[in-house]
Amino acid sequence: MSLRRILPRVIEQLLPSAVVTVEAYGQNDADLALFPEEAALMTRAVAKRRREFALVRSCARRAMEKLGVPPQPVLSGEHGAPCWPAGLVGSMTHCDDYCAAALVRTADLASLGIDAEVHQPLPEEVLPTVSLPAEADRLRRLSDRHPDMHWDRLLFSAKEAVYKAWFPLTQEWLDFKEADIEFSEDGHFRAALLVPGPRVGGHRLDHFEGRWTTALGLIATAVAVPHT
User: Fold this and answer.
1) Is 151:121 a contact under the CB 8 Å cutoff?
2) What is the rounded CA–CA span in Å between residue 41 and residue 190?
3) CA-based Rg of the chain, rounded to a whole angstrom?
4) In this predicted model, what pLDDT tens digit does every residue of 137-185 receive, in sequence order?
């Protein structure tokens, strides 16, 4: 029996039921074959990067199959964002021996973003580059109450998930300090957008809602953007 079948889902629990997620640990049961177009993107990549690239695309293709979409290449567009088949929106993430892909029909969600990180402290010099003063203050208070949780790494992960949900809606860069994230201890977070947000269904968004969890030595975050 493979690890992928017996280990719990990490990101799946954070997303609406319409989203199809496929998660993998290590390389168990993974089809690491690439389409020629994908392989061409990896000609100069080191072996570790090639494995991660192939493994997360294996997850994405299994998710496509679950949605009844023929497996096809997942190429990278502007700023490295994945290009999905027409009618789908999705997100991918990988870290060490874990990777995941989440896909949903565009009729069900406007956008989504997922991220997973190893549950360990963020390098000390990184936090000031990704956090606002108010966020850093809130993290200190959370750390006082829950010192076993690496809130700085959670902030980084949440900002990654926010960006991944933002980009398909705007095709524009979002800086780490252009979203102010506040965590609830019950596994939710709110990301206030400090720049004009995207229009969804004729309405301009001023924030994203997300969820977070920790499991198996990982921190995972997810943002689902509904149609308004």
Assistant:
1) no
2) 35
3) 17
4) 999 999 999 999 999 999 999 999 999 999 999 999 999 999 999 999 9
